[in-house]
What we know:
Strand order of the largest sheet: 1-2-3-4-5-6
Number of domains: 1
Largest sheet: 6 strands, antiparallel
Distance between the termini: 15 Å
CATH superfamily: Frataxin/CyaY
CATH topology: Metal Transport, Frataxin, Chain A
Amino acid sequence: MNYHKLSDQTMDELVTFLEDLGDAMEMEDFDxxxxxxxxTLSVGEAGTYVVNKQxxxxxxxxxxxxxxxxxxxxxxxxxxxxxxxxxxxxxxxLEQELRDILGMGNLSVPIK
Length: 112
């Protein structure tokens, strides 16, 4: 699968998951917007996440109010978006941070 298909699939899955999560939680300050390849997630006082595709670099970038900016490359050997700097995956980063912010220890983000 090529970068565009992988990144579109990842972003679509993430948007659907976050919208469903927001509906289930009924948290007033939880807002998800997705426009032109840029996903913005507001989580109240905790801050705002921005996740976007970077086609020239074939990466997905995230700006987190918790951990700051990170860049992820898709690694076929891991079947996941992996950060070169930390070795962690995009899904795991979001899962850990959202668990802490939302107080949901059983939260499972469906992307890698």
